[in-house]
């Protein structure tokens, strides 16, 4: 059972109030009550050890037992802009991206996209991010952006190292350096890939095509394999 709970509101005079959904999980699912010790995180990089003062299915009141805990965050900022896979494959992508430390997930609408997630679906996925953060002990929520078109992405992505998942791209041995401190964004296309026009536009905007391996990967596999490789290749400046 998880002993971590989420509260957006900061402590007031050392007190934290959990809303209905988190309180129900604490009281009904985890069967925790007065005197038990848990950890609470706010999704913005802070967490506290806390003692339960009151607990019911509708509300829980906790008292912090520590100053904010030291949290670990990736030194590399990675964003994934990906076409949306069908069904629970998107849920899997969001869960694993959260666990790996991806900062932002951008649902991407492209010429060959077949799934366009609704606002209610995105809201449910944001809740899934909270649950994943509980499990992996991450204190900062991964941001899920609104759906973005290809042209919007091309106009918005200035500054980061811009990488395009492409079977004809540069092999892993020839990827550009992944330098700590410089944000990276990886774009992943749908099952049909990016259209010739989309690829041409990306190259004009200085996106760099990279090959993620020998075989053609599903989009959710490509997104996770790609971002895991980015974290593994991070180079830290010499001091």
Structural descriptors:
239 residues, alpha/beta, Ribosomal Protein L25, Chain P, Alpha/beta knot, 2 domains, 7-stranded parallel beta sheet, 5-stranded mixed beta sheet
Characterise this structure.
- This protein has two domains: 4-64, Ribosomal Protein L25, Chain P (Beta Barrel); 78-235, Alpha/beta knot (3-Layer(aba) Sandwich).
- Helix content is 30%, strand content 27%.
- The longest helix has 18 residues, at 119-136.
- With 239 residues, it is of the alpha/beta class.
- Strands 6, 7, 8, 9, 10, 12 and 13 form a seven-stranded parallel beta sheet that branches.
- Helix 2 links the parallel strand 6 (78-83) and strand 7 (104-109).
- Helix 2 (88-100) packs across helix 3 (119-136) and helix 2 packs parallel to helix 6.
Q: In the CATH hierarchy, what is the class of the largest domain?
A: Alpha Beta
What proportion of the residues is helical, as a percent range?
25-40%
Within CATH, the superfamily of the largest domain carries the name SPOUT methyltransferase, trefoil knot domain
Question: What order do the helices and strands follow?
Answer: EEHEEEEHEHEEHEEEHEHE
The profile of the biggest β sheet is: 7 strands, parallel
Distance between the termini: 42 Å
* The number of domains: 2
Hey, roughly how much beta strand do the residues contain? 25-35%
**Could you say what the CATH architecture of the largest domain is?**
3-Layer(aba) Sandwich
Structure annotation, total helices: 6
CATH-derived topology of the largest domain: Alpha/beta knot
Give the helix/strand class.
alpha/beta
What's the pLDDT, averaged over the residues? 92
- Counting DSSP E segments of at least 2 residues, the number of strands comes to 14
Rg, nearest Å: 20 Å
């Amino acid at each position: 059972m998880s002993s971590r709970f989420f509260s957006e509101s900061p402590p007031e005079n050392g007190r934290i109030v959990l809303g209905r959904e988190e309180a129900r999980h604490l009281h009904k699912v985890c069967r925790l009550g007065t005197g038990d010790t848990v950890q609470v995180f706010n999704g913005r990089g802070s967490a506290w050890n806390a003692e339960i003062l009151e607990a019911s299915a509708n509300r829980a009141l906790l008292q912090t037992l520590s100053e904010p805990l030291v949290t670990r965050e990736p030194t590399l900022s990675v964003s994934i802009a990906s076409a949306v896979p069908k069904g629970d494959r998107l849920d899997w992508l969001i869960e694993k991206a959260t666990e790996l430390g991806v900062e932002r997930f951008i649902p991407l609408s492209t010429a060959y996209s077949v799934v366009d997630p609704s606002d209610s679906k995105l809201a449910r996925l944001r809740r899934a991010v909270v649950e994943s953060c509980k499990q992996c002990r991450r204190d900062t929520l991964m941001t899920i952006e609104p759906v973005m078109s290809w042209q919007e992405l091309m106009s918005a992505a200035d500054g980061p190292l811009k990488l395009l998942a492409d079977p004809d791209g540069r092999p892993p041995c020839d990827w550009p350096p992944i330098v700590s401190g410089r944000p990276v964004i990886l774009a992943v296309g749908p099952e049909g890939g990016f259209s010739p026009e989309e690829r041409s536009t990306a190259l004009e905007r200085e996106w760099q095509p990279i090959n993620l391996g020998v075989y053609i990967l599903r989009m959710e596999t490509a997104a996770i394999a790609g971002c895991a490789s980015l974290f593994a290749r991070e180079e830290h400046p010499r001091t």
